[in-house]
């Protein structure tokens, strides 16, 4: 057995981070955060690796997610992109979903609020 082989998940995130379009989002007083835009091919790789087991409809509606400190965004996502980035940054800061009218409300209806 080759002990140099790292877990599949580690290899995949390495590929994604190397190939994706790295951007910086300035989140006001919270500071600057990196996020990664994934083209369709990378997005398919990310989804099949990290969203395995999610219902198909949910995967189809997902346009971004946080993986530890990394924010991965589907490049073709356009509508509400800034809110989506903020929402995912919120996850990297340890925020979970809430029913309150904040950016962390998982419903798109409430993402017109900018506060975490
Ligand atoms: Zn979320």
Mean pLDDT comes to: 88
C-alpha-based Rg, rounded? 15 Å
Largest sheet: 4 strands, mixed
Instruction: Give the uncertain stretches in residue-range form.
Output: 1-6
Query: Could you state the order of secondary-structure elements as H and E?
Result: HEEHHEEH
Number of helices: 4
Ligands in the model, by name, code or SMILES, are:
zinc ion
Q: In total, how many beta strands?
A: 4
Quaternary status: single chain
Roughly how much helix do the residues carry, as a percent range? 25-40%
How much of the sequence lies in strands comes to 15-25%
Gross morphology: globular
Structural class: alpha+beta
Give the strand order, joined by hyphens, for the main sheet. 1-2-4-3
In angstroms, what separates the terminal alpha carbons?
47 Å
What does the secondary structure layout of this molecule look like, with pairings?
Elements: H1 8-19, E1 21-26, E2 32-38, H2 40-50, H3 56-61, E3 64-67, E4 70-74, H4 81-92
Parallel strand pairs: 2-4
Antiparallel strand pairs: 1-2, 3-4
Helix pairs in contact: 1-2
Zinc ion binds at residues 87, 91, 97, 106.
